[in-house]
Amino acid sequence: MYELRAPSPAPVRASTEPAPGPSPRLLPRLAAIAVVCVAVQLAFVVPGSGLGWDETVYVSQAGGDTPAAFFSAPRARGISYLVAPVAALTASTTVLRIYLALLSAGALVGAFWIWRTLVPGRVLVCAGALFATLWPTLFYGSMAMPNLWCALGALAATGWVARAVLRGAGRAEFLGAGTAVAVVVLMRPADGVWLALPLLLVTVVRPRMFAALAVGLLAGAAPWIVEAFAHYGGPLTRLHRASEIQGGLGWNLAVDDQAKALEGRTLCRPCTIAWQRPGTTVWWALLPFLAAGGAVVARRAGRGTVILLATGTAVSLAVPYLFLIEYAAPRFLLPAYALLSLPVAECLVRLYTWARRPAGRPGRTVTRQWRVVALAAVLAAHLTVQLQVTSRVSASSKSTTADFAAVAAALHRNGIRPPCVISGEQAVPIAYYAGCASRQTAGHDGSITPAGLRDAARRVPTAVLVAGGGPRPVYAPSAPPVFLVETRGEGPFTGYLFPPPDRPGPGRSDS
Questions:
Q1: How many whole angstroms from its chain centre is CA 102?
Q2: Residue 368: is its pLDDT beyond 80?
Q3: 124-143 residue pLDDT tens
Q4: Could you tell me which of 26, 177, 172 has the C-alpha nearest to residue 112?
Q5: Confidence of residue 359 (pLDDT cuts 50, 70, 90)
Q6: What is the 3-state secondary structure (H, E, C) of 140-176?
Q7: Distance set, CA 258 to CA 134, 176, 321 (Å)
Q8: Are 349 and 122 in contact (CB under 8 A)?
Q9: Are strands 462-467 and 437-438 parallel, antiparallel or unpaired?
Q10: What pLDDT, on a 0 to 100 scale, did the predictor assign at position 5?
C-alpha cells in the first residue's frame, strides 16, 4: 500500500530586502577607523594651525574676548553653537581643534552605525574607511566649519529614513530622522533643504515620518528665520541678499571647477587656476562609475532600495554645487561623498570578493593573488594621494593664518590694541587675531559707513589695511601708510592709522 502524504508546501521566497544582523566586530572596526582619522589630523592638521577666515567669523560669535565679526546673510549659527562650550572657556586653537576632531570622529562612527541593520558590516567598514580618508574629511574634521557636520547629518538622516521605509518606523526612527535633518539645516540651511527634498518625497505616503522630517526642517531653520526677521526684513529678503553674496543661483557648470579644486584648493573663486595635478581627481572621475556599479551589486543582493535612496539623496545634495553656483570648494560636496561611500563600498567589496575567488585550476592561483595585489595597490595609491593633499592643504592653511597673526602683531606694535577697529584687506581674520572689531564700509561684510569709521576712530585705535601695495582707500586717513609686515601670501601689508583718540593729528577728518 502506498501512504498518502500531503503535498509539500511551496517554498517561501526570501525577502528582497534582507536584514543583515550587525556584526559584533562592526563597532570596534568603525571605532578603529575613527581613531586613525583623529591620529592623522593630530599629525598633519592640528599642530601649529590657526583659525581661517570663515572660522574666525563662526568662533567670534561664540563668546570670548574677541568682538563678534559681521555675520552675513548666507551664514547659519550651527557651528557657533557647536564650538561655544570650548570657545567660552579658552582661546586656544589647539584645544578647539582636538575637541572638534574627537567630536567629529564620534559622529562619524554614529552616522555609519545607524546603517548596521541595512548594509553588511564589511560594506559599512569599507564605506567608513573611504569617507574618513578623503582629504576634505581629514582636513575639516577639526575645523570650525559646517560642511562635515552636514555630511554626517545627511548620512544619519538618510539611514533613519531607510530604516523606517524598510523595517517600519518607531520612536527612534522618527526622532533620529527629525534631529538629523534639524542639525543639517542648523549648520547650512540650503544643504538641509536639498537633503529634505528626496527624503520627503520618499516618505510622502508615511505621514508620521513625513511630519518628523518637516518638524526637523522647521526646527533647524528657526534661528535663521528669527534672525532674518530681526535684521533683514524677513526670510525672502535674506534669501535675496544671500543669493547676491553667493553670486546668484542659476545654470553654472562647476564640475570642472570642483575637479580642479581637489588638487588642494579650499576655495576656488573664481576658478581660473591652471590644472597642475590632474592625478588628484582620478578617484573623483571614477566615483560615478563605482557608485553605479555598487547600485547594481546591491540590487542583486537585495539591497537595491537602500543604496538607491543613498545615491539619490547624494545626487540631490550635489546638484547645487555642480550646476547652480559659479565657484567651487571641495568641502561643499562632503555630504554627497558621505552617502556615495555606501554604493562605492558595495562595488569595491564585490571586486575584492571577485579578486579572491578561486581561479578554477591550480595553475591559476597566481592570477588570483595578483588580482588582490592590484586592488590593494590601487587603494594604497588613492590613500597616498589623499594624505599628500591633506599635508599640502594643511601647510598652506598654516602659512595663511601665520600671516594673519603676523599682521596682528605688527598692528599691536603700532598701538592698535583692544578695544580697536580694523577695516580694509583681510580685516575679518586679522581683527580676530588682534582682538579688534572688524568693520567694512562696502562689500559682503559692509557694516559701517566711512563717516561711522571716522567716528569710531575718535574713540578707539583704528586702522585701514592694504595688501600687496594696493592704493589708498578713499575712506582711509590722509597720513602716510605704515609698513606692517611682509607676508608670504598677500605680499607687503601696510596700514593707514587714524590718529590716536587722545590727541589730534594730520589724519583727523570731521567731514
A1: 16
A2: no
A3: 999 999 999 999 999 999 99
A4: 26
A5: low
A6: HCCCCCCHHHHHHHHHHHHHHHHHHHHHCCCHHHHHH
A7: 15, 32, 8
A8: yes
A9: unpaired
A10: 42
